[in-house]
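Re: your question from the hallway

Yes, I did run it. Sequences:
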Amino acid sequence: MPAGDPAVPAEAADASPVSAPPPNAAAPDFDPDLVLESYPLHPAAVRLWAWQHGIALVLALVPSTLVASAFVGAWALVLGALTALLLHLVSMRYRRIAACRFRCQRHSGGLAYRHGVWWHSEVFIPSARIQHTEVNQGPLARRYGIGKLKVFTAAAQLGALEIDGLAYADALVLRDRLLGRDAVIIDAEPAAAENPDHAQREPPVSAAPANRAGTDA
Amino acid sequence: MPEQESSPQHPASDPQPGFGGADRRLHPWSWLFVLLTQLRPMVFPLVLLLLFGRGDRWVFFGALGAVGLSLYAIVYSVGFRYRLQGEELIVREGIFNRTERHIPLARIHNVVQRRNPLHRLFGVTELRLESAGGVKPEAVMNVIARREADRLEHLLREGTGHSTALHASAGEADAAAPEVLHSLGFGELVRLGVSSNRGVIALAALWGASFQFDVDYRELPFVDAIATSLQKSAWGFVGAHGVVSVLIVALGMLLLVWLLLRLLSVAIAIIKFHGFRLERQGQRIVSESGLLTRTRAGATPRRIQRVTVRQSWLLARMHRVSLEVTLAGANVQGERQSRLRWLAPIATLPAARRILAEIRPEADWTRDDWRPLHPRAAWRIFKWPALVVFAVAGVAGLANPWAWWGWLLLPWLWLGARGRARFAAYSVDSVTFAARDGWLSHRWDSVRLRDIQAVQLRETPGDRRNGMARVAVASAGGSGISASPIEVAWLPLAEAVALRDRLRGVVSHEAPEPSVAVLM
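Structure:
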């Protein structure tokens, strides 16, 4: 990726969760010259997904184990534990590959997003087609400073693109640049920096203006 | 408010000054139609209530509801006002809670008039104005006089005088009578009915509805009588003539059912498309059709997002195709889709090409730059259905050896897969992206590059093993199946990537539609 990544949080460089080998016959990337900026996966996103998977696992397995215990008694516990272990292993592998597959780039004409573990998908949305956007942050994601960017176009299907796992500040920066309003970010900066709870926002946002000067010209 | 009372009976002669300024109201009989619109979703429960409801309590509740709805209908239609002011249509609704909406005329892209037999009896029409965005139509006038609706439509077409560039060239073209691009006679309607499956669909819907309402059709007196007599005569026939003739008779019965279904299809086609006409009026195209309910839908050609040409096996035998378009605009939920959809439900090949040449020349499906799929595409299409058929028939055959006959489907599946892989293709030039697909029934989809909303490259696990990929192109509008992106599957990976890069390059430099720019 070009040197001008706007938003590589300090710890991203060393503690990268990405170590899985690329899957077979994956589509080659876009020409790097087209890419204005690349927005990395937040380093804690894998941990966030682990939490989400864990919660889903508990919610699904506890009731089904209880139901199963009515039929097979204590064996249900063993069965449940084995299933949990298996699903946990699958989830671990899934998360590793998902982190490796994640790629979010802003091009001069739009947004390119690559994701998917079993079903690889790579969507390109021209900026001129974006109708509105949404940045969300759930309670767990807030703890890690992770945000979810949704981009809507007029298309009935593929019309809503959801990018999960960006740093919250990155999501805001990306949104504003897609909508072509850089000025808003500069206004938002002090507020983000003042808030001690969101310390993780600082590096990306402060890095952003310098990069913008270099790439948008 | 005196100036409002005076307006409905204005003469139609002065479109500009007479229209501006004064508020206009709905037709005096509007409340009846509003009431009927309100009742429409309740028709089935009401019928059930009448059939199965027992006791006075239900009748009382029903009456209460009816009174409430009528009051609402009257209040609604009395409170509805609209007027044209400059380049805007201003619509006001409500008596206690007033809503006033200003709709720039330039933003109204789809205009729909609908008249069912009751509308026609009263000489009124339901007028629906839609813009590109939003979930609801911008304005629904339920109902206004026919003449009034035509006048509004005329104004929308021409602008109100101090006009924008959009309407600049429309003036002289409109002075002439509308130019008819396509129309359907009785013979074509019959062909349309014969070639379509509308009868089957209608019957399936009826059958589904019978489940919904728990109607046991064996309890219906005539069905029971028919079934019993058929059974008796059938057994008598077997006793008298033996198995072979029974098979022949069974085939004959199937043929009869098929014929009846076709007849039903023809009837539906006539009801739906009687008097079909596609016209060009200045910059707009307008289609009108219907035997009982006349629907008249207009749109500007540049709002057409996707053109779909279809040719079922029977249509191909008749050397005909159907032309369908998807317009930009909201997917109106709960409303019958009545906006412009058919350029031609059926047309001869030259006629269809002529229509497209008038409206969207780049959508011509007879282009010759189609690019094929991956050489192994047929095998990929065949593999999974074949495996499923093989396994299901194999397992079922263990229980009953007759099921092994199911394996005879395999050659058929292979033929289909091979035919589809040979026909499916895509084509991209500097203006449009087009894709075609199908085996016995063919379809061609095309979208202008400037209308593309998103481009997706997808690889399933099977694609990755075989070095293939699929490219999907999303356009705006549509609902249900027509809303799904145009997808070309089983392409060689390198070609799919090249296609993605090419589309990416073009769409990111295309100028946005003017209306989108206004919205942003």
